[in-house]
Design a protein that fits this description.
345 residues; alpha+beta; Immunoglobulin-like; 3 domains; four-stranded antiparallel β-sheet; three-stranded antiparallel β-sheet; 8 helices; 28% helix
């Protein structure tokens, strides 16, 4: 079938209308497919005045993708997508109320990543749209019935029905396998408590997460951590400057000693419950200490260490308070190991 329009020698501007076409002047043009524009553009035009729905699996209410501006502003896909690249509009000219992120690391510390698989039955329910949009007197595929009985179908039709059933069974198998696949991500309800601006809830109460929105938080958190590391290095340099000349001399000589370097490398910190840690030290050394810093690089506690029977440092939560702390093990004035701990009350 070929449909000609009224414009030019190429007969452009044709439209295939479904139902009443409507009038452009009265906010019309309702539902049609045609050639986009009013010239010979050779571009397909799919138009739904109040939205577009894409369905599959022989059921009119099994929606795999839709755009319904009366419900939300998203083009919703109830299936996986695979693309070669994604660019998100981010031009500064389109934005207002721009503010720097505050305490990004503290926000991320409250977020818990999880592994999960999808609940297939819930996914299927989310794909099914309101059946009231379809007349019960029409064979629209919702019930899966046919007005023709199999007794009057010819062999070719019956063969096609059986083939379609086999294909549908394979589709169902693949969807079940995809739903059961292990994934890694977040729970929207948890993210909503910490970063509500990254969570949206649709007209059916289903929540979604703007995962891209985590990228600026991660970038700013890395910058914050780098600043903390620089501050800690400055503190360490200042502490080393306070050491006696004899210890500093021993430290300078130790930097040229391969055996001492390996000994320092053997010193380790190990996490324990609460605010406590354990450690191992080389067999021989001049001095060793555990220094605890908060996330700003401020020294909180310094503990002299030796090779005792337990090599455990019991630190009370009440001494530190709560938050993230950096435990640093020094052997002969050299940083041997570092452990980051979150201490809760």
């Amino acid at each position: 079938m070929q449909i000609y329009g009224r414009i030019g020698d190429a007969r452009a501007g044709s439209k295939l209308t479904f139902g009443d076409f409507g009038q452009y002047a009265n906010q019309g043009w309702n539902v049609f497919a045609g050639e986009y524009g009013t010239t010979d553009t050779d571009q397909l035009w799919l138009h739904g005045k109040l939205g577009i729905y894409m369905t599959t699996n022989g059921y009119a209410n099994n929606v795999v993708a839709y755009y319904n501006p009366a419900s939300n502003t998203n083009f919703v896909f109830n299936t996986n997508l695979r693309v070669n690249g994604v660019n998100i509009t981010s031009d500064a000219r389109l934005k207002e109320n721009v503010e720097s992120l505050q305490n990004p690391l503290a926000l991320l510390e409250q977020v818990n990543g999880v592994s999960y698989s999808y609940n297939l039955s819930t996914l299927e329910e989310n794909r099914e749209q309101d059946e009231s949009k379809f007349s019960a007197t029409l064979d629209n595929g919702i019930s899966g019935s046919s007005s023709d009985s199999e007794e009057i179908m010819d062999a070719a039709t019956i063969a096609k029905i059986n083939r379609d059933k086999q294909i549908q069974a394979e589709i169902d198998r693949r969807e079940a396998a995809e739903a059961s696949r292990k994934r890694i991500g977040f729970l929207a309800q948890d993210i909503q408590k910490v970063l509500p601006e990254l969570v949206q809830t649709d007209e059916n109460g289903m929540m979604s997460i703007d995962y891209i929105g985590f990228i600026p938080l991660i970038v700013e958190s890395i910058k914050e951590m780098q600043q903390t590391i620089q501050q800690q290095n400055e503190v360490i340099d200042n502490l080393q400057a306070l050491l006696s000349p004899e210890v500093q001399s021993q430290l300078r000589s130790s930097t040229t000693s391969t055996s001492n370097i390996s000994a320092v490398d053997s010193a380790k910190l190990y996490n324990r419950e609460g605010a406590s840690v354990s450690y191992t030290l080389p067999a021989t050394f001049v001095s060793a200490s555990l220094q605890i810093f908060d996330v700003t690089g401020k020294p909180v506690k310094v503990i002299k260490l030796d090779n005792g029977s337990s090599n455990v440092v019991e630190v009370s939560r009440s001494e530190l308070g709560y938050g993230t702390f950096i435990y640093t093990l020094f052997v002969d004035g050299k940083k041997a190991d570092t452990l980051k701990k979150y201490v809760s009350l």
